[in-house]
Amino acid sequence: ILGFVVNGNFNDNDEDPTSTSFVRFPSGAVDYKIESEGSNTRKWTGVSNNINFKHTFDSTGREITADVDFAFYNNKSKTQLTTKIFDADGNKDGNDVVLRGDIPSNTDIYSAKVDYLHPFKNGVKLEAGFKTSYVTTDNQVEYTRNNGAGWTIDDRSNHFVYKENINAVYAIFSKSIKKWDLSAGLRVENTNAKGNQIKTDSSFKRNYTNLFPNVGLSYNANEKNQFNFSYSRRINRPNYDDLNPFVFFLDSLTYGQGNPYLQPQFTHNFEASHTFNKFLTTTLNYTQTDDIITQMLKQNTEKKVTYQTRENFNSMKQIGLAVMANFAVTKWWNMNIYTNVFNNHYSGIYQNGVKNDPIDIQFTTLMGNLTNSFTIGKKGWSAEVSGWYRTKGAEGLLVANDMGAVNTAISKQLFKKQATLKLGVRDIFYTQQFSGYAKYSDVDVNVYSKRDSRQLNMSFTYRFGKKNIAPERRRRSGASDEQNRVNTGGGN
User: Fold this and answer.
1) What DSSP string describes 431-482?
2) Beta pairing class for 254-257 and 305-330
3) In whole angstroms, what is the distance from residue 324 CA to residue 409 CA?
């Protein structure tokens, strides 16, 4: 089988954020007030191409597959930030300060991989393969400033180029013995990366090789009870935008900045689960992540400026218990219930530039999701009502307050079930509003974010072609890991 896949994504996104900041004395009295008006436009284009090949040697299932991928992403962003300063009595102080930014970026991804599957006569199955990928990101930013005396070049303009090559080989052996299914594998990855800030003539290089073992054990006790256990070591690399050292202004006193010195995070994951009667699954997991990539708020107390960045914090430990049930209430009503109770524990050292402060944050969080699907009559009508809720929890060093949402949709099958028309409303009660706080070291910040989360969506899907071929095309791209590290242009 030889196939090709082309995906295109085009996004034109505008945001006009406003904010008001009060700078106060320790007594609480207002020193001065800052009003910020932003205008951000993003024109984002992404196109990915995949050529795939599969050859089955014989009826035993021995086969070889191959993928070659090329993807490119282009982001043309422009920003303008206007700052107005007022004294404690509300009188305007000085001229408006206007900052303009032109922030183009390009990302190119090339990837190739080959996988081989070989079943042996004694029930042992071998899966092996290799993959190589090359990625280049080219980011520029040109800032100009006008404080009433004309436009001048801002010293935060920059040009950053990042190149990365990852090579990997893996092998997995599996075997079934009566009621037992066993598997064990090893993946070896070699990474070579280079970053270069052209305007400041500074660069860095990274070369490292890591091993990632995984084991799995399943026991089918009887028709109603199945048990599973797994262990794996994983790697998560920072997104390409997170490595970009540019400054992105959120308002006049707050900005975001990437960190080119971010290292990947490594995770040990243990998981045990039990499935009863093919409808109720209970899962217990323990995860330890070292050098976890964490979003942090930092501040320059003297300049009264806060900035948002990502750093490798020491560690995060999570233990959780999840329960999932999927069952038919009646012939026309199906229900899916998912609940998860977990404890996130972050510990490490926070560096604020003056001293190193130990931090220890942990919260136990409850998260639940309920989905109801309804079949209406016999003419292709169906409906769905779903909702989710999460209690207060730790997301890195930021504590997020509880939030949730209720969604609904109705759909109709058309053209002899070849097409589906669907109309839905997300966040009916407008409750998906984020709020939280960060309190550590010299940081004391409360956050509230209100977005257009209540949305009306309409979609039309039409399926064509031979259905017996379609499953062969529902496959994972060879460059999906790299593509997942690209900001897809929808804004922060």
Assistant:
1) ---EEEEEEETTEEEEEEE-----EEEEEEEE--S-TTTHHHH----TTHHH
2) parallel
3) 22
CB 223 within 8 A of CB 469: no
235: tokens are 């790697």
Q: Encoding tokens for residue 71?
A: 């993807």
Task: For residue 275, give every residue at least 6 positions away whose Cβ sits within 8 Å of its Cβ, in sequence order, or none.
Answer: 225, 226, 228, 281
Structure token digits, residue 110: 């090339």
CA of 78: how far to CAs of 17, 303, 307, 421, 448, in Å?
Answer: 14, 26, 20, 36, 25
What is the per-residue pLDDT across 179-230, written as a single tens digit (0 to 9) for each? 999 999 999 999 999 999 887 777 889 999 999 999 999 999 999 999 999 9
What are 419-422's contacts with CB under 8 Å, separation 24+?
419/460, 419/461, 419/462, 419/463, 420/459, 420/460, 420/461, 421/458, 421/459, 421/460, 422/457, 422/458, 422/459, 422/460, 422/461
Distance CA 44, CA 124 (A): 47
Report pLDDT digits (tens) over 99-122.
Answer: 999 999 999 999 999 999 999 988
Q: Distance between CA atoms of 375 and 425, rounded to whole angstroms? A: 18
Cβ neighbours, 10 Å, residue 136: 16
Q: Which of 187, 310, 297 is nearest to 238 (CA)?
A: 310
∠62-64-66 over CA atoms, to 5°?
A: 165
Identify the residue whose tokens are 């929890």. 393
Integer angstrom CA distances of residue 380 from 236, 376, 424, 460, 466? 43, 7, 16, 14, 21
Token duo for residue 251 = 């308002």
Distance, in Å, from the CA atom of 392 to the CA atom of 403, rounded to the nearest integer, reads 8
Bridge partners, 216 (sequence order)? 183, 230
Phi, psi of 242 (to 5 degrees): -70, -25
Torsions phi, psi for 322 (to 5 deg)? -125, 145
Length of the chain: 492
Handedness of CA 177, 180, 181, 183 (dihedral sign): negative
